[in-house]
Amino acid sequence: MTKIIAADVLVTAPGRNYVTLKVTTDEGVVGWGDATLNGRELAVAAYLREHVCPLLIGRDAHRIEDLWQYLYKGAYWRRGPVTMTAIAAVDVALWDIKGKLAGLPVYQLLGGAARDGVLVYGHASGGDVAELLDDVARYLDRGYLAVRAQSGVPGLDKTYGIPGAGQTVYEPASGARPHEDLWDTAPYLRFAPEMLGAVRERFGFGFHLLHDVHHRLSPAEAGRLGRDLEPHRLFWLEDPTPAEDQEAFRLVRQHTTTPLAVGEVFNSVWDCRQLITERLIDYIRTSVSHAGGITHLRRIFALAELYGVRTGSHGAGDLSPVSLSAALHVDLSVPNFGIQEYMGHAEPASEVFHTSYTLSQGYLHPGELPGLGVEVDEAAAANFPYDPKYLPVNRRRDGSVHDW
Ligand code: KDG
Ligand code: MG
């Protein structure tokens, strides 16, 4: 038995807010888990500190599945982003410990490498099409084989996916309330095919092109957009409609052959069961940190494999380097891997998170260090206190709230 003797929560903001769980064992081995839930960080920190950490003390760190079941079923209340992010942090920290004790990188414990590297897509963006094209060129020059393209929409001041000059995060400045953006579907629907067409026209078809709608369309609108984009041969169209309405994807599917990717807001296999078993999507985008850790993510991916759905884990910058490392170990080992999002982390994140993954020719590799291959510098973390921030809210021209 390897006894857990401490479980501590670190809240730090090196470039953006991150919540990290540190689990310490009686042998002095430490495991790290990411508990960041963008804009709701302190809810997960409190859930862990008040309700989960005390339950971990004295338990066997090796019994990952048992602890997962204990925290999930034992709470009685099921699922939800706060609970599942907290459970994920514990789960990932325990896999880290198991790998360190075994002297093996986590992917070896998951069955070993099923591929040599993890195909990633980068985030190209611009305030307008000209800026976007310059950014796509930068990614292709750096050897990326897959690029997500987002551009400002004419007539709209701000749009999701455009970080703004000199920034690498999508959220606006700190504050007690979210910033409010204007949203108008009609100009976006006219503009998106033109924008993605311009990317293909300039750079051709020799790389994978992706686009994120970020849940903003109705099923009929999404079907039309998917059809309009068919000539541009997208790798995927992401979150075309609000993800929680699984039925809606039937309608989208009936109208387009553009591949669909969904799942960054899901927390469990139950959230995506219909999408997978009815083959309504092509890629499942659940993440290690928001969908119950490595243990539960593997279950979702195994279900997806049965139905020909491939993986495409969420990997925005608000998932910490601990999450990205964990995702890479899963990506390397599952048979139905598709692609991994790789947005990178705004500095000074690297002062706090010391990582060992490497990027080469468009592929990431988690490295060969025992465990996850990421360590957290607690002294450095203490230099970056929590900084309240929210994702923006969208309002239509008439003032009503729209999906962001
Ligand atoms: O916190 C929310 C972000 O992670 C999300 O808006 C990013 O949609 C996103 C993506 O595809 O990375
Ligand atoms: Mg997205």
TrEMBL record:
It comes from the Bacteria. Signal peptide: none annotated. Its EC number is 4.2.1.8. Transmembrane segments: none annotated. SUPFAM superfamilies: Enolase C-terminal domain-like, Enolase N-terminal domain-like. Residues 129-259 form the Mandelate racemase/muconate lactonizing enzyme C-terminal domain. It is an enzyme of class 4 (lyase). GO terms for biological process: amino acid catabolic process; carbohydrate catabolic process. Keywords: Lyase. PROSITE patterns: MR_MLE_1, MR_MLE_2. GO terms for molecular function: magnesium ion binding; mannonate dehydratase activity. PANTHER family: D-GALACTONATE DEHYDRATASE-RELATED, STARVATION-SENSING PROTEIN RSPA. This is Mannonate dehydratase.
